[in-house]
Amino acid sequence: MSVSDMFTALQGVLTADQDIREEIRKVVQALEQTAREILTLLQGVHQGAGFQDIPKKCQKAREHFGTVRTQLESLKTKFPADQYYRFHEHWRFVLQRLVFLAAFVVYLESETLVTREAVAEILGIEADRERGFHLDIEDYLSGVLILASELARLAVNSVTAGDYSRPLRISTFINELDSGFRLLNLKNDSLRKRYDGLKYDVKKIEEVVYDLSIRGLNKEAAVGAGGEK
């Protein structure tokens, strides 16, 4: 084979690879748009009247996840099944955002931490790497850390809305989350940096709870803690 033939063949490989990346990019753009729509919907819970509409907002968000599942199903077809990590960077950030949104919905519904398996089911993908297009553990953890920041914001806005028991429950949840992350030996630089931000979320929520205590509102919150969340 001549040098010219060799490079012609290489160009063919490069072109095929570029075509795959372009197809992936189109689907990822659609996923990002759907993620923005879900986020816009859920941001309403931070407003005063939004607390009364939480169940309705969560239901609508879950309907949007139907679109996410369809888009992810399309994404699976755009590259060879055994090359997941070759193209992973293209959808990593949007997948982390979708994990956060799924985790936020589940938290708003039940005030519990969604499992990786449950997120994978919501997104319509696999939890196990061996089964194909899956939810990478580090993507799951990154999404959970985004949730922590969102809940720190929710704690502040809960006080503004006159809901004094919610920050106490959020504080308990975030502290349990922090304890869980302390059990992990994180090697990924990006994930480690994001985890380092968790301590600021913990501190922010602690300040909210302390302020409630100083103002005597924690007693009111304790009285209402046995009622509806």
From TrEMBL:
UniProt entry tagged with the keyword DNA-binding: yes
Kindly report the protein's main subcellular placement as a broad class: cytoplasm
Q: Which UniProt keywords apply?
A: Cytoplasm, DNA-binding, Endonuclease, Hydrolase, Magnesium, Metal-binding, Nuclease, Nucleus, RNA-binding
What are the BP-aspect GO terms?
RNA metabolic process
Assigned GO CC terms: cytoplasm; nucleus
The reply to whether Hydrolase figures as a keyword in the UniProt entry is yes
The record's annotation in InterPro entries points to: Translin, Translin_C, Translin_fam, Translin_N, Translin_sf
Can you tell which superkingdom this protein's organism belongs to? Eukaryota
Residues annotated for Mg(2+) binding in this entry = 150
Q: What GO molecular-function term can you cite, just one?
A: metal ion binding
What the protein does comes down to:
DNA-binding protein that specifically recognizes consensus sequences at the breakpoint junctions in chromosomal translocations, mostly involving immunoglobulin (Ig)/T-cell receptor gene segments. Seems to recognize single-stranded DNA ends generated by staggered breaks occurring at recombination hot spots. Exhibits both single-stranded and double-stranded endoribonuclease activity. May act as an activator of RNA-induced silencing complex (RISC) by facilitating endonucleolytic cleavage of the siRNA passenger strand.
Which proteins does it associate with, and in what oligomeric form?
Ring-shaped heterooctamer of six TSN and two TSNAX subunits, DNA/RNA binding occurs inside the ring.
Q: Which family does it belong to?
A: Belongs to the translin family.
Please report the name of this protein according to its UniProt entry. Translin
The coding gene here is TSN
